[in-house]
Amino acid sequence: MPSMQSLHDVFVHELRDLYSAERQLVKALPKMAKNAGSPELAEALESHLRETEVQVTRIEEILEGLGERTGGVKCKGMEGLIEEGKEVLDMDGEEPALDAAMIGAAQRVEHYEIAAYGTAIAHAQAQGHRDAVRLLEATLEEEKNADKLLSQIAERGINALAVASADIDITNGGLASRSSKGNGTARRNGRSNRGLKNGSSRSGGRRGAKKAT
Ligand SMILES: [Fe+2]
């Protein structure tokens, strides 16, 4: 465990933790984007991946400026959040409901980061590290925008679709069959819509594979 003698030590530890968090996210986001049913959701996750790659380099720049190395800390908070995101990827069910669950997992990640960057900015300010403040604020802005965009995507369509897909199931097969067997018509529709908008790239993903079993 690192020894905390001053705010400098706390700040460096926070930056290393964020560095680990962002790098874990760079690995996880492509899998989430690939499995998103909604093209809009997939695009939002892909664009946040590109932002996240830049966020990693900002932290490198700050730590370099402080004469400190980047490694040595694993962000266990992000590890847990990504673990929960992976659980969503393993779920079977209706596409809009799965997308709604994925958005929930992604927003937990964003809020965790927003909290961490808020603290790091305050610590940078307290030490008069103006360049660090500027870089961290740029990242914080991106995290807030990503969170907002996810809310919009959910509220503009996916949530309502997820409510409606349950209605379809109730009329066709009753509640009891919904979770385990799903609804063939609803799934086929969902996938063919997605195929039209996106080409075939996403049809080989998780949900396509599940249907074959
Ligand atoms: Fe981030």
Question: Could you characterize the architecture of this molecule?
Answer:
The chain has 213 residues and is an all-alpha fold. The chain has one domain: Ferritin, CATH 1.20.1260.10. 81% of the residues lie in helices and 0% in strands. The chain has eight helices and no strands. The chain has helices spanning 7-35, 39-65, 76-90, 95-126, 130-173, 178-181, 184-198, 206-212. Helix 1 packs parallel to helix 3 (76-90). The radius of gyration is 20 Å and the shape is elongated. The protein starts with 6 loop residues before the first helix and ends with a helix. Residues 173-213 have low confidence and may be disordered. Fe (ii) ion binds at residues 22, 52, 55, 113, 143.
Main β-sheet: number of strands, strand sense, barrel status? none
The oligomeric status of these chains comes to: single chain
Rg, Å, rounded:
20 Å
CATH architecture: Up-down Bundle
What is the overall number of helices?
Answer: 8
In short:
This protein has 213 residues and is mostly helical. The protein has 8 helices and no strands.
What are the key terms here?
single chain; mainly alpha; Ferritin; 8 helices; binds fe (ii) ion
Helix and strand topology:
Elements: H1 7-35, H2 39-65, H3 76-90, H4 95-126, H5 130-173, H6 178-181, H7 184-198, H8 206-212
The chain binds fe (ii) ion.
